[in-house]
Fold these 4 entries.
Entry 1:
Amino acid sequence: MAALGSALALSACAGPLSTLQPEGPSARGAAMLWWIMLAGSAVIFALVSAMLVLAYARPGPLRAAGPKTIMVWGGLVFPGIVLTALVVAAFALGERMLATPRDPAPMRIEAIAERWIWTFRYPGTDGSETRNRLHIPAGQDIDFVVTSGDVIHAFWIPRLGGKIDAIPGRENIVRLRADRPGVYGGVCAEYCGEGHAVMRFTVEAHEEADYEARLAAAIAEESAR
Ligand SMILES: [Cu+2]
């Protein structure tokens, strides 16, 4: 019964937009932090509940500790340690998503958001584009140069990581990687008007060896439209 319950609960965690089914290092870091926070908050909730029960059932030990000790340890020291650890973890994970310069530089793909369409422009293709379908090679870091042609949008591929704002007149860069070939979902993650909900795109991660041929076919198909 319990197994059935958790299977039902977790089945909602799978799918093309699931942050709990990571397929790249950036998303894996965020998912890990989420699981740590879930486990940590469950432990803290259990501790607080136990103290509440104790306060009613056997108030002696708590009274003996005194309100000052409880406030200093329970209200300052303990939350201080927990919040510091979370801030450090969040900074370390956030740092991984940044496109820090390195040699050789990862492939750069431009992602341009406009109400309500995504355009992707690829290096070494004379500015060729695909719309609402992004093609990447699996197994390597890609730097996405994200901008907008009108209002503020946000670029997000939940199973790979991210997200980052698409701001007119500005280029924001996020580094993502798909571990394996596959099809993933992407969305606009910043409300941008009536078409926001349908401003989605599909990410196709190809085998590295097939990538150039697949991309060329996709570009040819796009221009034939
Ligand atoms: Cu939007």
Note: The chain has five helices and ten strands.
Entry 2:
Amino acid sequence: MRQLKVDGKPHDVNVEGDMPLLWWLRDELGKTGPKYGCGIAMCGACTVHVGGRPVRSCSLRVGDVKDDAEITTIAGLDTQAFHAVQAAWIEHQVAQCGYCQPGQIMAAAALLQARLVEGNPPLAEKDFDVTVDHVMSANLCRCGTYTRIRAAIRTAAARLQGQKS
Ligand code: FES
Ligand code: FES
């Protein structure tokens, strides 16, 4: 039987390949971090990482996930270097109702992973806000936590950059 690794552990895939990844994660594995918002890849509430990249799990079929791709939900994020993102979120008290927040954190973690860990130049101060707003604008928050999200990303980025040097 096919298996996929989720949050560091292999899981049997015993569903049809056209099931959305979000359904499999939530209904079959009990991973309730990723949320159902729009179901059409427009809100980002369902964001998880596949192979280290942020994806909309409501719109990716289980059958289209590569066998060797690691899937990470917010439940597995604290096993990675991006505990800093979650710590910054708490410090800035970002969440209000909380519904969008797992997706927001996964998007932010992927942004910082790409910019700070994979050898790319860090976010320059002069375009920090523009870059963060551009990337994070794909994740919607009905409670309007955008200002705190940006502040938390700034804190996490500073810490991760400090850890690198
Ligand atoms: S539920 Fe997937 S993007 Fe909205
Ligand atoms: S915190 Fe409520 S939707 Fe974002």
Note: The chain has six helices and five strands.
Entry 3:
Amino acid sequence: MGSVVYTQPDGTVRELEAEAGQSVMQLATKNGVRGILAQCGGTLSCATCHVYVDETDLADCGPLADFEDDMLDTTAADRLDCSRLSCQVKVGEGQTIRVTIPPTQL
Ligand code: FES
């Protein structure tokens, strides 16, 4: 098991337990976390699953693939150095990944 801590733009925090290998997006949509739309269902073609990853957890998120990098240029909210698409971030065993949801996805 691992966990993800989701912080909403208004500061509301929600922590959920994740199965190892589950994506930050899958966990959010399964549990009704607001602000992660994931319109394409994780096929890396919508960028509506954009999150800002806590700087201390970036190394746990795996490498940024070229196609994800390209898609991050299309996000509705500003792209930051800590931006990732949550469908591409998998939670590892024992990991806690902290993310902040941007103010808009569209
Ligand atoms: S869910 Fe569409 S790019 Fe992540």
Note: The longest strand covers residues 2-7.
Entry 4:
Amino acid sequence: MNRRELLQWLSRGMATTIAAIIGLPGIRYLSGKAPSVTEPESDFRRLKRLQDLSVGRPVMVPVLGSKQDAWVQSDQQVLGRVWLIRRPAASGAAETEVHAFSSVCPHMGCQIQMQPSSQKFVCPCHRATFDLNGERQNDPVSQEANHAPRDMDPLACRVVCDSSSEDAWVEVKFETFQIGSKQRVVRS
Ligand code: FES
């Protein structure tokens, strides 16, 4: 191999290496194998002490976890928000219940808010209104039909006792759902 051939061989090798380094993340991205959120599925997440929830007063709670793009993993990021409502204990029941709903409006994905004056959930974008059970209501002012295609999305929720502190904690199985459809379809 003469000097010229050696130089050509070296430059081809370098070009191949550089292309591989630059191209791999892009290929990962294009193949859809770079999830925006990487959290173990079906996990219940500990969100709130039971004693911090007042009966009948909904509280919006952020859900924290790890997010990863093609290059970087970031911990303690807000993955979403849920509404928690502590219910009065049914007569004869020893335990109080907590219900959880996704805060994402099933119409177009805005964050559903609480309207304290009416004790209803209201979406600020197109005024979809829901009662405290997450069921759709007509707008009490305009009586317009509700824009939301379904009720608020309920989330599995449980109250557990911490074995070391003996505090009762509310845990929620956090999921996201397709927006805009009548059917409730889990996205993640
Ligand atoms: S996004 Fe909530 S009513 Fe339209």
Note: The two ends are 57 Å apart (CA to CA).
